[in-house]
Design brief:
This protein is 76% helix and 0% strand. It is built from three helices and no strands.
Length: 123
């Protein structure tokens, strides 16, 4: 494998984790100030109130930051370990796994929003 292929390979493998860390930090420390439909973590639950919006961004940002940071070295290690196999098939499988991990915080954040709302109603 030549250098240009290695650059493309590692760029593909590190793109999702790096994006997760970047946007996770943005959502934690510089989230959108008000509910909008152009930028931010926008779901029915998160746009229900300003409090839900703020909570969802902090929660989702924290999950994305931690998962993305964990995926960076894991993705590099997996790519190194896959040398000698059909590397492009292995990268495709790794990207599918990364995408699933990237989507998991949506379900976790929605569950946390629902639990928070339920707790507030039971007070």
């Amino acid at each position: 494998m030549d250098l240009s292929e290695l650059i493309i390979l590692y760029s593909l493998v590190l793109m999702l984790p790096a994006t997760m860390v970047l946007f996770g930090l943005i959502f934690m420390y510089r989230p959108p100030k008000s509910i909008n439909w152009t930028y931010g973590y926008r779901t029915r639950g998160s746009t229900g109130s300003q409090e839900a919006w703020d909570f969802a961004h902090a929660h989702f940002g924290r999950l994305w930051t931690y998962l993305g940071a964990a995926m960076l070295p894991a993705s590099i290690a997996a790519t190194v370990l896959m040398q000698g196999t059909n590397i492009w098939t292995a990268v495709l499988i790794l990207l599918i796994i990364q995408t699933a991990i990237m989507m998991a915080p949506i379900m976790l954040t929605e569950r946390a929003l629902k639990n928070r709302i339920d707790d507030q109603l039971n007070l």
